[in-house]
Design goal:
four-stranded antiparallel β-sheet, three-stranded antiparallel β-sheet, globular, mainly beta
Amino acid sequence: TTLSNTLVTGKTKNPATYEIQIWNEQGIRVKTVQTDQKQPTISTRDLPNGRYIIHVTQDGKTTKQQLLIRH
């Protein structure tokens, strides 16, 4: 997962529907997106600078990754 300007982009192996959640450092979910795109793009323009955790859930399995947002 990468941060480019104000967009989070990533790649998935399977084209099935999955959910992407972004959580802030306080443990509050700040964004949720459901998609079936192979390379989804999510705007982070509305999120303040800081550290976040991205949760990607597909077929009942969740992968987590850190994200640093700097505008």
